[in-house]
Amino acid sequence: MTDLLGKSVLSTIIQTPTCGALDFVERALLSIDDAGKISALLRPADEGYAEALDQVRQNGILLELPAGQYLIPGFVDLHIHAPQWPQLGKALDVPLEDWLQEYTFPLEARYGDVVFAERIYADLVKTLLANGTTTAVYFGTIHQEANRRLADICHALGQRAVIGKVAMDHPEQCPSYYRDASAQDSISGTSDFIDYVGSLPGNEDGRVLPAVTPRFVPSCSGRALSGLGRLAEDKDCHVQTHCSESDWEHGHVLARFGKTDTQVLSDFGLLSRKTVLAHSNHISDADMDLIRQAGSGVAHCPLSNFFFSDAVFPLRRALEKSVRVGLGTDISGGPSASLLDNCRAAIVAARALDHGVDAGLQPSSRGIAGSRIDFREAFYLATAGGADVLDIPTGRFETGCHFDAILVDPDVETAPIFIDAGLDSPDDIAQKLVMQATRGNFSRVWVNGVVR
Amino acid sequence: MTDLLGKSVLSTIIQTPTCGALDFVERALLSIDDAGKISALLRPADEGYAEALDQVRQNGILLELPAGQYLIPGFVDLHIHAPQWPQLGKALDVPLEDWLQEYTFPLEARYGDVVFAERIYADLVKTLLANGTTTAVYFGTIHQEANRRLADICHALGQRAVIGKVAMDHPEQCPSYYRDASAQDSISGTSDFIDYVGSLPGNEDGRVLPAVTPRFVPSCSGRALSGLGRLAEDKDCHVQTHCSESDWEHGHVLARFGKTDTQVLSDFGLLSRKTVLAHSNHISDADMDLIRQAGSGVAHCPLSNFFFSDAVFPLRRALEKSVRVGLGTDISGGPSASLLDNCRAAIVAARALDHGVDAGLQPSSRGIAGSRIDFREAFYLATAGGADVLDIPTGRFETGCHFDAILVDPDVETAPIFIDAGLDSPDDIAQKLVMQATRGNFSRVWVNGVVR
Question: What ipTM did this prediction achieve?
Answer without folding.
Answer: 0.97
